Amino acid sequence: MKKALFFALALSVLVGTAHAADTKIGLMGPITGSWASEGAEMKQVLDLLATELNAKGGLLGGKVQVLSEDDGGDPRTAALAAQRLATQGIIGVIGTYGSAVTEATQNIYNEAKIIQVANGSTAIRLSEKGLKYFFRTCPRDDEQAKVAAQTILTLGVKKVALLHDNSTYAKGLADETKALLDAKKGAVDIVFFDALTPKEQDYTAILTKLKSFQPELVFFTGYYGEAGLLLKQKKQMNWNVKFMGGDATNNPDLVSTAGKDAAAGFYFLSAPLPKDLPSEQAKSFLAAFSKKYGTPPSSIYAVLAGDGFRVLTYAIEQTKSTDVAKIADYLHKELKDFPGLTGKISFNEKGDRVGEVYRVYQVNQDGQFILQP
């Protein structure tokens, strides 16, 4: 009788302490390197969203865990980070920021049957490979190029220089923009199309070469570190040509590098900045972020990472499954107009986000990024 009672008590303890397994989601971002500010905010956003989700009961009866790996903004480092994450039982991974960095990891995640939701990787070819488990919450460069070409035409300039950095993202955006402007049959004369070498500290040589072609506008399709130096050094040369950047120039460090005076007047393309997100849901999230970390997020790419986390966890909830094939099918075919922080989210058969996202911004005299009408 005592033995029966003992086993009954033991069984009740085991049943009482049993719980569903945790759901593991990876984060791959540039925690170190020249894009570290982007990676830091990506991690903060996902940590906050995971905490909020777990406070509401978690996923499928268990908690959600975010496992982070640093890709350093470097393709080789990213491939190693992806290999580490792929062995840790994750259902999906959020990230990363740079297109070439994402490209180095795509096959690793796809072969491991892990969903990847990129947040800042806009290169067209990333979604042209037929990878079932690849998605992105950011738009593609062909969409960005349309806005770039239209903005150039609206500004009324006739002579344009296109400057890139030979990266997957920057070269792709430059090529797409050139094709669209060429199709305008003489409305704009592209007087320069070439690349700089990224991560250098002196761009006066390329700026001097650019100046000799007398463009009325320079469209730089690379990243904010180089853009800040270009703006700073062209001011030192007393060259007052208009400058415009792609969405990878959208970062407060652009102004820190260039200085407010040199950055003033700079145009760039971007998804709406966090401060310009209109929905009450987005405003509530920004308030929660500010409460936890002291300031609101400065980068829209961190918020796009948050949207990746939210659509992935929503798909898990709706399918009541951690079967990656089921989750991917749901995201491709059934997720419609999900209320994302950055707007409504749906995906097409390639995993691309559907709909227009890009806006035009200009830097004012105080170094603030102002949405243009």
In words, what does this structure look like?
The structure is a single chain. The longest helix has 20 residues, at 36-55. Helix content is 44%, strand content 17%. It is built from 14 helices and 14 strands. It is globular, with a radius of gyration of 23 Å. The chain has helices at 2-17, 36-55, 75-86, 99-103, 106-111, 141-155, 168-182, 204-212, 224-236, 253-258, 260-263, 280-293, 300-319, 324-333, and strands spanning 23-29, 64-70, 92-94, 115-118, 134-136, 159-164, 189-195, 217-220, 242-245, 267-270, 338-340, 343-345, 359-363, 369-371.
Keywords, separated by commas or semicolons:
single chain; 373 residues; alpha/beta; seven-stranded mixed sheet; five-stranded parallel sheet; 17% strand; globular; disordered N terminus
Average pLDDT, rounded to a whole number, is 94
Unreliable parts: 1-18
Number of strands: 14
The value of Rg in angstroms is 23 Å
Largest sheet: 7 strands, mixed
Terminal Cα span: 81 Å
Structural class: alpha/beta
Record the SSE blueprint.
Elements: H1 2-17, E1 23-29, H2 36-55, E2 64-70, H3 75-86, E3 92-94, H4 99-103, H5 106-111, E4 115-118, E5 134-136, H6 141-155, E6 159-164, H7 168-182, E7 189-195, H8 204-212, E8 217-220, H9 224-236, E9 242-245, H10 253-258, H11 260-263, E10 267-270, H12 280-293, H13 300-319, H14 324-333, E11 338-340, E12 343-345, E13 359-363, E14 369-371
Parallel strand pairs: 1-2, 1-3, 3-4, 4-5, 6-7, 6-8, 8-9, 9-10
Antiparallel strand pairs: 10-13, 11-12, 13-14
How would you summarize what this structure contains?
44% of the residues lie in helices and 17% in strands. A seven-stranded mixed beta sheet has the order 7-6-8-9-10-13-14, with helices on both faces. A five-stranded parallel beta sheet has the order 2-1-3-4-5. Strands 11-12 form a two-stranded antiparallel sheet. The termini are far apart.
